[in-house]
Fold this sequence. Notes:
By secondary structure, the protein is an alpha+beta fold. The chain has one domain (21-140). It is built from three helices and seven strands. The protein has helices spanning 2-5, 8-19, 64-71; strands spanning 23-30, 38-43, 49-54, 75-84, 105-111, 114-120, 133-138. The strands form three sheets. It has a three-stranded mixed beta sheet with strand order 4-1-7, with no helix packed on it. Strand 2 (38-43) and strand 3 (49-54) form a beta hairpin. It is globular, with a radius of gyration of 19 Å.
Amino acid sequence: xxxxxxxxxxxxxxxxxxxxxxxxxxxxxxxxxxxxxxxxxxxxxxxxxxxxxxxxxxxxxxxxxxxxxxxxxxxxxxxxxxxxxxxxxxxxxxxxxxxxxxxxxxxxxxxxxxxxxxxxxxxxxxxxxxxxxxxxxxxxxxxxxxxxxxxxxxxxxxxxx
Length: 161
């Protein structure tokens, strides 16, 4: 209703701001139990809801609601990304304008056998592309051959023919 009350110029500016931004098309595979995040709806501090790729470390381990959502997720992290990083006139976007600087999270790391906690800034998949136009598409599982641990290299997909 608010949109209808705006002038033509206000509508034009709103739509230009909404659509004149980088685009990412993310190929997702069905979740088969691999560790990692996936595609989720995220509400930022201003209340805007966007599609994001969320890492497990970003999900509150103490929130029963968030854990239920994570466990019921059907798809897994991006396998392939296709990105449009130029505007409709062919000019490159200033990608820094489309980052959510608040999309930081604490992850668990180790160094020299000592457990550490690290504050991670927005990564490529998550906060750094937070304000991009995002599409998730399902791609065949065969396109996904993760190596998250050394043991993953023992899988058939990583063996010579």
